[in-house]
Amino acid sequence: MTDQEINEIASRVLASDTSRPGFLGSETISDLDFDGTEVLRVTAHYEHMPHIARPLDAMHAIRAELLGQGEDRTVFLTNKYRDELPSIEDDAA
Questions:
Q1: Domains of the chain and CATH, by start
Q2: Entry pTM
Q3: What would the pLDDT profile of 14-43 be if each residue is shown by its tens digit?
């Protein structure tokens, strides 16, 4: 599957998670992990950090949906929040 096809699935799964309101969109890129295995990196963007965040549940839901489509790469999910304070690395850039 292409990154765009995967991102459409990830966005649909993330947008349907009512425990995490304020979903703005996502980005997906194919990458290699530390040992050269192909993985998927999904970055989800939210308006605000939810009071109860379950990133593993969201990551597993995306992976289950992708497995059903024949995509077996591991998914790594990163959440970014508009109201999040910038990190030291962000300040250095």
A1: 3-85 (3.30.70.1350)
A2: 0.81
A3: 999 877 788 999 999 999 999 999 999 999
